[in-house]
Amino acid sequence: MTHAATVLEEELAAGLASARRLEEKLSADRKVDPEAFDELVTRVRTDGHALIDTVVAQLKTSDDQRGEVIRRYTSDAHDALGSVLNLARLVPDMANGLVDRLASSASQNPASSDK
Questions:
Q1: Which of 107, 112, 90, 98 is nearest to 37 (CA)?
Q2: What angle do CA 65, 81, 99 make, to 5 degrees?
Q3: How many angstroms separate the CA atoms of 57 and 51, rounded?
Q4: Model pTM?
Q5: Distance (Å, rounded) from C-alpha 12 to C-alpha 4?
Q6: How far apart are CA 53 and CA 50, in angstroms?
Q7: 12 CB-near residues (< 8 Å, 6+ apart)
Q8: Tens digits of residue pLDDT in 56-81
Q9: With contact defined as beta carbons under 8 Å apart, do 43 and 18 qualify?
């Protein structure tokens, strides 16, 4: 179990590095790279499911009633993570559309500083 936790910790650290690179690119280019974002979502999905499984492995018990609750919560946690990350895939298009609209609006209505 210690080895699994170490591997998960390394994966989470790599995911944070991906998030930082995406943030830097967004700051520099003012655009969200859909491929880089998708890579990050995929990594978070994999690591998130691994984290859920690791926690559940620590909670396993022979008590049938508690075991059923754990199975339901595990299923719900995996479903919730999947749903949130599926929604997150919409972020690049939404963010890029907003940036384009703001840029277009700014160029059509330049602020007049000589009034």
A1: 90
A2: 165
A3: 10
A4: 0.52
A5: 12
A6: 5
A7: 47, 51
A8: 877 775 566 677 777 788 888 888 88
A9: yes
